[in-house]
Specification:
CATH class: Alpha Beta
Structural class: alpha/beta
GO molecular function: [heparan sulfate]-glucosamine 3-sulfotransferase activity
Pfam families: Sulfotransfer_1
Keywords: Disulfide bond, Glycoprotein, Transferase
Protein name: Sulfotransferase domain-containing protein
Number of helices: 11
Shape: globular
Number of strands: 12
Largest sheet: 5 strands, parallel
GO biological process, one term: heparan sulfate proteoglycan biosynthetic process
Strand content: 5-15%
Bound molecules: adenosine-3'-5'-diphosphate
Helix content: 40-55%
Order of helices and strands: HEEHEHEEHEHHEEHHEHHEEEH
CATH superfamily: P-loop containing nucleotide triphosphate hydrolases
Amino acid sequence: MVKFSTRCVVACLLTIGMCFLQYNLFFRNFKFKWWIDLGKGEKSHLEKKFPSALIVGVRKGGTRALLDAIALHPKVRIVRRETHFFDSNYTLGFDWYRDQMPEVENDNEIVIEKTPAYFTNEHVPKRVYEMNPDMKLILIVRHPVYRTVSDFTQVYYNKLEQNKTLPVLSVEAFKTNEAGIEKINMEYKPMTNSLYDVHISKWLKYFDLKNFLFVNGDVFRANPLRELRKVEEFLGLERSITPSQLVFDYNKGFFCFRKTTKVRCLGLSKGRKHRSVSEDVVAKLSNMFEEHNQNFFRLINRTYSWE
Ligand code: A3P
C-alpha cells in the first residue's frame, strides 16, 4: 500500500513537472514571439512623411546637386526621383504622394522633395499652399543666359537620342513681332524657363518671401558649403555637413558627395559640355533677359551679378 502511494506521488510529481516544463516552454516561446512582434512593431514606427521643404527649381540650376548635398545632413531624408506631384501627378492624390516619400524614424527628421518643373507650372503654387501654407521653398537660381544654354543643350541631346530633328538655339529662341522687332520666343521653354520674374510673381501670390530660400547656383557649384550653411539654417537644422563630405572631382570639374565611405558624383548629363553658342546670340539673350532680371531682383529684394 505504502509502495503504491509512493509510486502515485512520484507519478503525480512527474506529471506536474512535465506540465510546468511545457507551460514554461510555451510561455517563453510566447514571450519570444511577443518580443519579435514588438521588434516588428518598432520597425513599423518608421513612417512615411510628407515633405516640409521643396526644391522647386530652377531647371538646370543645380537642383540635383543641391538635393544630394543636403541629403548629407543626418536629419534630412530625400525623395530621390522627381515625383511631379503638384504639376502632372496631382490627380493621383495625396495617398499616392505619401507613398513616394521616404520613411522617417522620428519627427526630427525632415523630408525634402525636388521637382524643378514646379517653379514654372502655374497650378503648382496654389496646390502647394493648400497642402501646407508653411512649406519651405528652395529656389536655386543661375545666370539666366547660361541656364538657357544648359536647358537647350539638354533638349538637344534628348532629341539626338530620339533621332528627332535637332534644334538651333538662334532659330528657336527669338521671334520677330509685327513691328519687325526681335523678341523672346514665348513658346520656347528653354527661354521662358529663364524668365524668373514671371514665375516667382505667381508664387508670391500665395507665399511670403520668408517661405523662400534663394540659393545662388553659380556660387553653389564652386563652393557648395557656403550655400549649404544657408540651407541648413533655413531648414532649422544644426550645422552638420562638413568640408570632408564634399569631394572635388578634378576630372569632372565638380564636387561629389560623401555620405558614408562612398563618394557619389552626379550623372553625365549634369555638367556636360554645352552646345556652342555664338557671342552674338549670348549678347542678344543677355539684353532680352535684362529687364526680367531687374524685375526679379525687385520682387525678391536681392540682386545677383548676372551681367
Ligand atoms: P550644366 O550641365 O549646364 O553644367 P539640374 O540638376 O537642376 O538639372 O542642374 C544641372 C546643373 O547643376 C549642371 O548644369 C551643373 O552646372 C550644376 N551643378 C552644380 N553642382 C554640380 C555638381 N556637384 N555636379 C554636377 N553638376 C552640378
